[in-house]
Amino acid sequence: MLTFIFIFFFGPQSEGCQPQQANTSLEGWAARVNDVELTRREVENLVYLRGDRRSETELKSLRQDILLGLVDQELLAQRGAAVGIAIDERGLSRYITSDENPDFVAFTDDAGNFDPSGFRDALRYRLGISPDDYRLRKKREYLANQYRRFLEEQIQVSAAEVKTEVEKDLRSWNLNYLKFGPEQHQVDAPAAAAVTAFASSKTDAIKAFYTQNKTKRFVKGREVKARRILIKKPADDAGIKSARAKIEMLHAKARAEGANFAQLATENSEGAGDKEKAGDMGFIRPGAAFYKTVFEPLKVGEVSAIQDESIGLFFVKAEAETPALNRTLEMVTQEIAREMLVTETQTAMARAAANKALARITAGATLEDASKAPVEAVVAPVAATDGSVVAAQPAIAPVSPTALFAETGPITDNTRFGQPWDRIPTLGKRALGARSELVARRLRTLTQAKPLIGEVVEIEGEFYVFSLKSKTEGKAEDIAAKLEEKTTQMLALRRRQMVYGEMGSFGGDPLATFRKALRSGNKVEINEELYPQPKAQQNSGLPPGLKLKLDGAKK
Question: I need a labelling partner for 237 at 20 to 30 A (CA). Which of 159, 304, 312, 362 fits?
């Protein structure tokens, strides 16, 4: 990753040969780094090379990137010189005239050999600088690259660290579980008095429920279920004329009494998926394309006029509708309260059933046995007159649902990049599983002798009892086979963290951490009259335990 960073800022695009830009004033300084001045000409050379077809806003950002890159390169070169990295004039000449120089290809003849006359012409006519100035740029580039390698060599991983990470990669757990869902428990409708009391005590919760579900359930525009017939428009005039004649013929057929619109769409429509779905568009909601102009005015059974749009020539038929809704909070408060009370009651029943199952398992039953035998009926709590849930009463018909018995599948010790560390597969309502910090932390404590997580775990409104089914450790030969690959991965990650910080390059200036460490103890001045600087953005800093030794002898 460091190689990419330095190639991006200090590679061919920073020292390559650029064409002469338009005749504008390029005199003056762009930045001063300690006692070294970086010229405006050098910055604008690079902007001209890389700024083709960019907007003014993009060019402004590009100038910032290039200038900061040159400042960083000069700082690296100075740091390199401070720790004893050097190159003499003969060595610099060898570097410039070898394929180590990113510009070398621009200085070669047809046989691939260095061409002195081509070199002079490129500097004069393309870069517009003298050989001495070019040598200074190349020296800075060389010192910066060597110092970058010096920094990379400081980042190491021990054999013990690598082995530990490989062992984590190969370690996994598989858990058996019982799941108790509130929806398993059927309940009678609560009494009106209980609903009213609940509504009085839960006004904030009911309002939040209404707000969350307002556009889904309570306030909606009219939705129209439609089919369409579409003919694509060719690019030529004759093709468009033919397409228009075809759509007019189909439109007449579709409006004829007894016409089978679905069959016409299957046989003739050219829209994506129309033949397979007989032109079915599903329900069209307010806000969808053409809703106001095409769908909203249609009554059920009507066929629209022909529409000429960029997608083609088309018309639609309204087959059904869902009427508009405008139900206020006051209108649905009792409905929401009743639903929430039933859900709360079902949840209490599911939790009680899970606790009873856990007690049976703790007493010696297996999870599988507990899943086969129906859980003892749990009589549901009901709401008191003040809306709180109190002692059990026979207001709800008791049932004895069977818990779901299943297994999680492998839960790896090392999570995949971008995935939460506490995600447990197969749980919850999502394909990737659900998160549970409690389960993730307890994994390492589970053994075959003590396989049970000794408490009911609530995950996304459902209740689980977990027990270890199996634990897998990597074999010695498998661990040995992965050590080299893991070493490479860990070095790359740590070098990335050295530049970007612990959180990667998301948000703000991705190099802010690195630049802060690099500039410490140095004087950097930007010519803000020519290159105004944006406001500094927050950065989380270097990851804990990772420190840059920017100068002094390497360890």
Answer: 304
Structure token digits, residue 460: 């996304």
Q: What angle do CA 252, 258, 260 make, to 5 degrees?
A: 75
Mean pLDDT of the chain: 84
Residue 416's pLDDT is 67
Are the C-beta atoms of 465 and 118 separated by less than 8 Å?
no
**CA 284 → CA 100, 289, 309, distances in Å?**
62, 9, 18
Tokens of 114: 């260095």
Q: Tokens representing 168?
A: 């984590």
Which CATH fold topology does 2-154 show? Triger factor/SurA peptide-binding fold (1.10.4030)
> Residue 426 has what pLDDT?
87
Fold matches, 2-154 and 222-323:
no
Quote the DSSP letter at residue 545: T
The residues with which 231 forms a beta bridge, in sequence order, are 313
Tell me the one-letter amino acid at 237.
Answer: D
Which residue do the tokens 């740029």 mark? 137
| Distant-in-sequence, close-in-space partners of 28: CB < 8 Å, separation ≥ 6 | 39, 40, 527, 530
pLDDT, tens digit, 9 for 90 and up, residues 498-530? 665 554 433 445 566 677 778 888 999 999 998
- Nearest to residue 304, comparing CAs of 318, 322, 287? 318
CA angle (520, 32, 54) in 5-degree steps: 100
Does residue 301 contact residue 318 with C-beta atoms inside 8 Å?
yes
Q: How many CB atoms lie within 10 A of CB 328?
A: 11
> Which residues have CB under 8 Å from 238's CB, separation 6+?
none
The kind and range of the H/E element at 306 are none
Tell me if the pTM is above 0.90: no
How many CA atoms within 13 Å lie on the side-chain side of 217? 10
Strand spans (E) along 200-340: 219-220, 223-231, 280-284, 307-309, 312-322, 325-326
The closest alpha carbon to 501, from 488, 490, 514, 489, belongs to: 514
Q: Which fold has domain 222-323?
A: Chitinase A; domain 3 (3.10.50)
* φ, ψ at 159 (rounded to 5°): -60, -35
What tokens were used for 121? 């012409």
Strand order across the 524-526 sheet? 36-39, 29-33, 524-526
Strands 462-472 and 524-526: unpaired
Phi, psi of 411 (to 5 degrees): -110, 110
Q: What pLDDT, on a 0 to 100 scale, did the predictor assign at position 500? A: 56
Where the chain has pLDDT below 70, the residues are 1-25, 49, 51-53, 373-401, 416-418, 498-513, 535-555
From 85, 96, 373, 339, select the one nearest 205 (Cα to Cα).
339
Domain boundaries along the sequence of the chain: 2-154, 172-192+327-472, 222-323
